[in-house]
């Protein structure tokens, strides 16, 4: 009988067993500070960790965080979960989106506090960027050679704009800079050959050399009348011609108005501010396609203006429908507007026929609306002497079972729509009757 011989397990067998165990028992993903990980095609780098939360930046700080061929609109998430830990996205790392030439728009969330150097450099197709309201700094060359950018708004949180940050953004025509910005570094907007308008919402920041060199001929800095640090009107300042605009406290045009035959619509206008010398207040009516179909003669915009503007349908001679009434100050970007409804015959829309009736054998108030040739929808409520009642719709009538049927009645009907004429507007009818 042969004796069993024990043989040592070979190294290859050990390796196979080990690999099998690893494959069968997966290890849970985790990351430490300084590590990188990928979620939904975006690379993140861990900045901090604390229990089940932490913070990350987009990108590893040296190359693009996404596939550089990514096309279209891109929204950076404000949080990302990895390894059971929820990370807030607080930074955009250096070069995170550099050379992503097919991006057309980017939205940066409010969780982000800084944009790194070269973050979006050479994003030639980028036409718009929304910078979140927590960003405090924009790094060097962050948006350099974003040649399709048209306009940029620097939010109220930003304090500094880095060197060459928007240099050679050849399509850039306007920039709005918040009052929180205290420094704009060297050549930040240099070689932006289409840049014509720069709106400063605060005092003059500390400026580096050649910040706006190479801007469009006649490029203008629009500053508030009480801003400090800018030279006099018409003077050159860092390559821009200074123009002062009124520092308006408020411009209001009342509430939504309805304009019908036989009744004027009165629109209260209130304007208060300063620095309005030589400015004009203009009223216009804009149709649903955004075209101005009426413009008033301009008013002198004094520092305090109050007027009840009366609009008459016959004088305006505009088709029935939905419009926008707009008030604006010439030479500024200040504007206020309200919805304006131009409706057909007043009596047809506002006169109800209220009578005693019955519904399912019980006494009821019946409200009839005249047939004016347009589809009508009842989407609201009926009040009789300020008491709300349940209603039943039947044909051209609204029945109100259980309502008071004697004496003087105050009737209010809300939520009447004529969708073919006024898709977004609901009418309220009020009428006093004696039964």
Give me the secondary-structure topology.
Elements: H1 11-24, E1 36-39, E2 42-50, E3 53-58, E4 72-75, E5 79-82, E6 85-92, E7 103-107, E8 114-115, E9 128-130, E10 137-138, E11 151-154, E12 160-161, E13 174-177, E14 183-184, E15 197-200, E16 206-207, E17 220-224, E18 236-237, E19 240-245, E20 250-252, E21 257-261, E22 265-272, E23 280-286, E24 292-295, E25 299-300, E26 304-311, H2 313-316, E27 321-329, E28 335-345, H3 346-350, E29 353-359, E30 362-368, E31 377-378, E32 382-384, E33 387-389, E34 392-394, E35 397-401, E36 408-417, E37 427-434
Parallel strand pairs: 3-6, 4-7, 6-8, 7-9, 8-10, 10-12, 11-13, 12-14, 13-15, 14-16, 15-17, 17-19, 21-28
Antiparallel strand pairs: 1-2, 2-3, 5-6, 18-19, 20-22, 22-26, 23-24, 23-25, 23-27, 27-28, 29-30, 30-35, 31-36, 32-33, 32-36, 34-35, 36-37
Helix coverage percent of residues?
under 10%
N/C terminus separation: 122 Å
- Poorly predicted runs of 5 or more residues: 1-28
Could you give a short account of the major beta sheet? 10 strands, mixed
Mean pLDDT: 85
How would you sum up the global shape?
extended
Quaternary structure state of the chains depicted: single chain
- Our estimate of the beta-strand percent is 35-45%
Rounded Rg: 33 Å
* Structural classification: mainly beta
> What is the number of helices?
3
Would you count the extended β strands for me? 37
